[in-house]
């Protein structure tokens, strides 16, 4: 029943994606996975000319390192079998976060992330593991984000009615559970996501489209359709800002996706805010403290109205005085 619901959600998602952006987004094939063991590519990290991916639930604990020609050039394995690995995120030079965060029944008491090194050649490691706990109950999730500057992790849940972004503590403890806290709403049926190198934006994808969010405000500022894929579940942003997507299926392709112009515009740094200070007036030569102004009153106010008023008053007083003098003489 759940598969049918998610299948319907996928169809709806692709329809919404068609409305959200260009009908035929530009893309190129980066590679096709040569390794027949890569059958359900669910997470993706791109760095240093290498592509790191992981199978969906059902595989042992391992990641695959693939070169630009599609050949597997390295694997990293660990002893403990995961419950439901669904996502990858960058974890610094030559390391990835593996998100064992899937929970279709929403009944896991906790989920887990592991910091796993990678490179060319095969290796077996005992990776550092960290337990994450939701504040309410279990949630299904397939998206793990890592901020490129602080390294803080974010889990985006997958829900037909809308996902939630949960923030992990900035410093994870390996000795005790790390409590997640909700910080924002997100795309429904989220299958993967990644931060952009600027740390001010991140992408979250579903089966047919992707949305752009600001950080730390988590404001949705753009959306666009993704290329048609069998079951698109991987998204990575390379250090140069290029966007790559993967899909489940044996020998499936990884695509380099062009961002539509409207999305590129939304990602531009904001224009500097106008100054709140008043613009300076045109400067005039400063007057000497002892100099008189043009009208001779020392404060720049014109004096002729006062002079004229004085003349009128004196004339009136003089006329009254002459009138009184005549009246006295007549008496």
Count of helical segments? 3
**What is the level-2 CATH architecture name?**
4 Propeller
- Give the strand tally: 22
Write the H/E string, N to C.
Answer: HEEEEEEEEEEEEEEEEEEEEEEHH
- CATH top level label: Mainly Beta
Given the helix and strand composition, which structural class is it?
alpha+beta
How would a crystallographer describe the biggest sheet?
Answer: 5 strands, mixed
If strands are numbered along the chain, what order do they take across the biggest sheet?
2-3-4-5-9
N-C termini distance: 129 Å
Average pLDDT for all residues: 83
**Helix content estimate:** 10-25%
Q: Could you name the CATH topology?
A: Hemopexin
Give the count of structural domains: 1
Spatial shape: globular
- Low-pLDDT runs of 5+ residues are 1-23, 279-331
Estimate what percentage of residues fall within beta strands.
Answer: 35-45%
Q: How big is the Rg? A: 36 Å
Description:
The chain is of the alpha+beta class. It has one domain: Hemopexin. It has 3 helices and 22 strands. The strands form 5 sheets. A 5-stranded mixed sheet has the order 2-3-4-5-9, with no helix packed on it. A hairpin with a 5-residue loop joins strand 18 (209-214) and strand 19 (220-225). The N and C termini lie far apart (129 Å).
What are its keywords?
five-stranded mixed β-sheet; disordered C terminus; single chain; 331 residues; 3 helices; 22 strands; Hemopexin; alpha+beta
Offer a concise description of the structure.
The chain has 331 residues and is α+β, with helices and mostly antiparallel strands.
């Amino acid at each position: 029943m759940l598969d049918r619901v998610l299948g319907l959600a996928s169809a709806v998602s692709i329809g919404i994606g068609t409305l959200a952006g260009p009908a035929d987004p530009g893309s190129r094939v980066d590679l096709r996975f040569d390794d027949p063991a890569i059958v359900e590519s669910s997470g993706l990290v791109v760095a240093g000319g290498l592509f790191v991916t992981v199978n969906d639930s059902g595989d042992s604990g391992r990641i695959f390192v693939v070169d630009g020609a599609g050949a597997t050039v390295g694997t990293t394995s660990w002893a403990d079998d995961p419950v439901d690995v669904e996502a990858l995120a960058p974890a610094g030079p030559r390391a990835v976060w593996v998100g064992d965060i899937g929970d279709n029944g929403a009944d896991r008491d906790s989920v887990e992330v592991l910091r796993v090194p990678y490179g060319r050649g095969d290796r077996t490691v005992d990776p550092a593991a960290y337990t994450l706990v939701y504040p309410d109950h279990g949630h299904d999730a397939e998206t793990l984000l890592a901020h490129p500057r602080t390294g803080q992790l974010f889990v985006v849940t997958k829900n037909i009615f809308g996902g939630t972004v949960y923030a992990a503590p900035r410093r994870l403890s390996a000795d005790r559970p790390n409590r997640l806290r909700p910080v924002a709403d997100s795309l429904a049926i989220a299958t993967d996501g990644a931060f952009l190198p600027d740390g001010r934006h991140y992408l979250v994808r579903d089966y047919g489209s992707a949305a752009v969010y600001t950080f730390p405000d988590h404001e949705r500022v753009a959306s666009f359709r993704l290329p048609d894929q069998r079951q698109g579940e991987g998204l990575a942003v390379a250090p140069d800002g290029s966007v790559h997507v993967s899909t489940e299926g044996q020998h499936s392709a990884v695509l380099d996706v062009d961002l539509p112009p409207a999305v590129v515009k939304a990602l531009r740094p904001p224009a500097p805010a106008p100054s709140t200070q008043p613009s300076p007036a045109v400067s005039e030569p400063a007057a000497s403290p002892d100099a008189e102004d043009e009208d001779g009153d020392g404060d720049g106010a014109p004096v002729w109205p006062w002079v004229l008023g004085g003349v009128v008053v004196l004339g009136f007083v003089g006329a009254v005085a002459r009138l009184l003098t005549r009246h006295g003489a007549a008496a």
